[in-house]
């Protein structure tokens, strides 16, 4: 699989992704809602609804960013939610949002590498990641690590962009992601490459049955694939 990086500069993909998100952190939440026309909130709610069907007392949120999914998961009344990310500036914004909502007793955020999680085996009931696995430097290592820290019979929930296949959504989405998304992203974030990287990373990333094959290869027992909004995103429920 081709590795897509956000910058034509030196450094590993992980370092480039960290720098990119540090650069756009100040506009990340606004752009998320603006560029998705607000539908991103519905995608997160659907993810939380699926998590509600399994054990969820202790939840890990990988690539938590500004903690939107972690905050949404509070409605499940878990004992704890641990969010990790490699971008300190994204976490800084997330911590402020958590503090403003007085959720520090439930949500804790920390710097950590998704491919080397600093937790013992089987620590969490469930793990979740929204729009983060495309940014893993080593996809299989990251997926294996999430599986490792989730308890037996638990699940990992992956919300990720995918590639619509049906007319006319496929054609519209291709035009939007190639031209409109980079234009608006650059205009509002000030980053020349961040929102050009997004469509390229989606194009080169496995989705649907391709990602299911990867998940089964690293040891998950079964995978439920749930396309959302005509296949623009997909929710994967991978059983440990």
SSE layout and pairing:
Blueprint (H helix, E strand, L loop, with lengths): L12 H23 L3 H13 L6 E5 L5 H5 L7 E6 L2 H13 L6 E5 L12 E7 L8 H11 E12 L7 H21 L4 H10 L5 H9 L4 E7 L4 E7 L1
Parallel strand pairs: 1-2, 1-4, 2-3, 4-5
Antiparallel strand pairs: 5-7, 6-7
Helix pairs in contact: 1-4, 1-6, 6-7
What would you say this structure looks like, in words?
The protein is globular and about 45 Å long. A seven-stranded mixed beta sheet has the order 3-2-1-4-5-7-6, with helices on both faces. The chain has helices at residues 13-35, 39-51, 68-72, 88-100, 139-149, 169-189, 194-203, 209-217, and strands at 58-62, 80-85, 107-111, 124-130, 150-161, 222-228, 233-239. It has 240 residues and is of the alpha/beta class. 44% of the residues lie in helices and 20% in strands. The chain has one domain: Rossmann fold. The mean pLDDT is 89. Helix 1 crosses helix 6 and helix 6 packs antiparallel against helix 7. The protein is built from eight helices and seven strands, in the order ααβαβαββαβαααββ. Strand 2 (80-85), helix 4 (88-100) and strand 3 (107-111) form a beta-alpha-beta unit.
């Amino acid at each position: 699989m081709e590795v897509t990086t956000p910058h034509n500069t030196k450094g590993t993909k992980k370092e480039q992704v960290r720098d990119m998100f540090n650069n756009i952190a100040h506009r990340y939440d606004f752009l998320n809602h603006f560029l998705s026309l607000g539908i991103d909130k519905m995608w997160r709610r659907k993810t939380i609804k699926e998590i509600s069907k399994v054990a969820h007392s202790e939840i890990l949120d990988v690539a938590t960013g500004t903690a939107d999914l972690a905050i949404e998961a509070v409605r499940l009344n878990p004992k704890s939610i641990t969010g990790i990310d490699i971008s300190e500036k994204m976490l800084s914004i997330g911590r402020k949002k958590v503090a403003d909502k007085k959720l520090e007793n439930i949500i804790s955020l920390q710097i950590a590498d998704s491919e080397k999680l600093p937790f013992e085996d089987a620590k969490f009931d469930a793990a979740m990641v929204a729009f983060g696995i495309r940014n893993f430097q080593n996809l299989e290592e990251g997926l294996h690590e999430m599986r490792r820290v989730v308890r037996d019979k638990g699940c990992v929930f992956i919300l990720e962009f995918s590639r619509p296949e049906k007319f006319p959504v496929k054609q519209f989405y291709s035009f939007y992601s190639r031209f409109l998304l980079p234009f608006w992203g650059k205009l509002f974030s000030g980053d020349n490459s961040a929102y050009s990287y997004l469509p390229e990373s989606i194009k080169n990333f496995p989705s649907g049955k391709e990602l299911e094959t990867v998940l089964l290869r690293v040891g998950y027992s079964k995978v439920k694939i749930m396309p959302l909004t005509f296949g623009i995103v997909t929710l994967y429920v991978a059983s440990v």
